[in-house]
Design a protein that fits this description.
The chain is of the alpha+beta class and 171 residues long. It has 6 helices and 8 strands.
Length: 171
């Protein structure tokens, strides 16, 4: 049954002990970053872009990018738009030099690069990486395009808001 067919009061069975063998090579940090990028990342054009007003997320992405030899730089006066670029270190390649961006390479390797808000989906690499990476990805996606609501009876439920129906159905 698809989530859109559920009604208030329907019971949903949740697997709590599903433990597939992980076949992916994503770390939990990679999965969290991919969740952030699916929510508020720019994966088209030349630059890797990220938008947020949340200083905690800015600090986390700054640290993540730095750990991969990249810099997070502000690109707008209002301080919500950022670019993730390779630090100024050239990498030898063949007969010349090529300045590569490991963060962009990750986005390409999982199939997110070139997708817009309307076409992004949860990458297969996340699905194959196991439950810890699923949770990390969903946490990143929740931190950018979601939240938690509390009902009148005190029940808390996560929600995501997106213009991409396919991505919402993935969650």
């Amino acid at each position: 049954v698809k989530a859109l067919h559920l009604e208030v009061g329907d019971r949903v069975r949740v697997a709590t002990d599903y433990s597939p063998s992980s076949t992916g090579s994503l770390s939990q940090d990679d999965a969290y970053f991919l969740g952030l990028m699916v929510g508020d990342g720019g994966c088209t054009g030349h630059d890797v872009r990220f938008s947020t007003a949340d200083s905690t997320l800015v600090d986390w992405v700054h640290s993540y990018a730095a750990g991969r030899g990249c810099l997070l730089t502000k690109t707008s006066a209002d301080g919500v738009d950022y670019r993730i670029a390779r630090a100024l270190v050239d990498v030898p390649r063949g007969h010349g030099w090529k300045n590569t961006n490991p963060v962009k390479d990750l986005l390409k390797s999982v199939g997110l690069w070139g997708h817009t808000a309307l076409t992004k989906r949860i990458p297969a690499a996340v699905w194959s990486a196991g439950p810890e990476c699923w949770w990390a990805f969903l946490a990143g996606y929740l931190d950018t395009d979601g939240g938690v609501s509390r009902s009148a009876t005190g029940v808390c439920s996560p929600y995501w808001a997106s213009s991409n129906r396919g991505l919402l159905e993935d969650t």
